[in-house]
Amino acid sequence: MISINFVVMIERNVNLKSFNTFGIAANASRFSRFSSVEELRSLLSEVGEDKLLILGGGSNVLFTEDFDGIVLRNEITGIEVIQESDTEILVKSGSGEVWHEFVMSCVDNDYGGIENLSLIPGSVGASPMQNIGAYGVEVKDVFESLEAFHIKTGEVHTFYNKSCEFGYRESVFKRKFKDQYIITSVTYRLTKQHEINVSYGAIESELVKMEIDNPTIKDISNAVIAIRSSKLPDPSKIGNAGSFFKNPVVDPELVEKIKESYENVPNYPAPDGKVKLAAGWLIDQAGWKGKTLGSYGVHKLQALVLVNYSDCTGANILDLSSDIIADIHEKFGITLEREVNII
Q1: Terminal CA-to-CA distance of the chain, rounded, Å?
Q2: 323: which of 32, 103, 218, 276 is 20 to 30 A away, CA to CA?
Q3: Mean of pLDDT values over 115-144
Q4: Is residue 3 very low, low, confident or very high in pLDDT (cuts 50, 70, 90)?
Q5: Which pLDDT belongs to residue 304?
Q6: pLDDT tens digits, 142-159
Q7: Which of 1-15, 65-79, 266-280 has the lowest mean pLDDT?
Q8: What is the DSSP string of 239-285?
């Protein structure tokens, strides 16, 4: 067996502003990058017991202070077809690939199933961790398996759909195995004979606007991109992490109580007889939408999105989110949960 030794490059006191989509300035005591499992293994052997943070696209993180440890940026790339039949195709991607670019690659090759997830920020590795979803589709619907590096043992383990214990924006990697694994690749089971999903009215409306009667997966992707672009700020122009809060899942009795004051409250069936409410609608009704507090605030077109207009701190955003959570609880009896990872 040939042993390969990688040169470990570790920088010190690195500003993470350009590595998070909120554009928050925070320093990492040490910083490095890895583009393969072997490089990751070499880095971790140098890190020792140092506090560790893995960064992908930086689209689901809010830095509220400097990070006294080492930040490792995941740059494992590569997309390959590993199996296909007449109807399905398994596509494997490095976890450091940009999610939207991966979606576009699949759509351009006519691999269906993730077109409704176009323009979601972040990396491929975050997709199963968060069980990302939009417009009637979640990653769990197309997920085949993933490979993950076990930090303590250095072993690479394979997880299949059931073992990930997917839930609403949840997986074992957010709770049960939090900070124990680093996802290195993800494989998706996509379609060659497509079932177009237009279950969300916004997509149907956009297709009508586009004068498309018989949409392809490319048309669906374009419609989703148009919808998201019209109401969500571009992180390259306005700092944000997309949806800051999860949509709450509540008991139907609470929904009926809210309907006494808000007859047309948007609500959707959820598992176990529960009901999902739109967090953005709740925040809007409470008067937060478009509210600006100096250099930060709530986006004017989407109340779910908290924004950094210039040079606010992560503590500013965190305090704003706390105020919103307290207000929604007081007005509706609902405690919103942050979707963004607070560091």
Answers
A1: 41
A2: 276
A3: 92
A4: very low
A5: 93
A6: 999 999 999 989 999 999
A7: 1-15
A8: EE-S--BPPPEE-HHHHHHHHTT-TT--EEE-GGG-EEE-HHHHHHH
Tokens in use for 121? 């920020």
Whether 199 is a known active-site residue: answer: no
Q: 165-222 pLDDT, tens per residue?
A: 998 888 999 888 988 999 999 999 999 998 888 877 788 889 988 889 889 999 999 9
Active-site entry in 169, 185, 206, 228 = 169
- The predicted model gives 244-271 an average pLDDT of 90
Q: How far apart are CA 300 and CA 201, in angstroms?
A: 22
Which residue type sits at 128?
P
Residue 93 forms beta bridges with which residues? 79, 186
Joined together, the tokens standing for residue 246 give 């999860």
Domain boundary among 133, 160, 191: 191
* CA-wise closest residue to 228 among 99, 320, 328: 99
Does 126 lie in the same domain as 83?
yes
Same domain? 40 vs 88: no
Instruction: Supply the range of the domain harboring residue 102.
Output: 79-191
- Tell me the C-alpha to C-alpha distance, in Å, between residue 62 and each of 55, 78, 222, 324: 12, 28, 29, 16
Catalytic entry in 42, 243, 321, 338: 243
Phi-psi region of 113 (alpha: psi -120 to 50; beta: other; left: phi over 0): left
Instruction: Report residue 266: phi and psi, to 5°.
Output: -65, 130
User: How many beta carbons lie within 10 A of that of residue 75, not counting itself?
Assistant: 17
Structurally, the chain folds into a number of domains equal to 4
Q: pLDDT band at residue 1, thresholds of 50, 70 and 90? A: very low
CA dist., res. 122 & res. 263, Å (int): 36
Q: Would residue 6 count as lying in a domain?
A: no
Whole-structure pTM value: 0.84
At residue 169, the pLDDT reads: 82
**Catalytic residue (one of 75, 165, 170, 339):** 339
Residue 246 and residue 337 in one domain: yes
Give catalytic status of residue 169 as yes or no.
yes
In the block, tokens 């999860």 appear at 246
For residues 146 and 115, membership in a common domain is answered with: yes
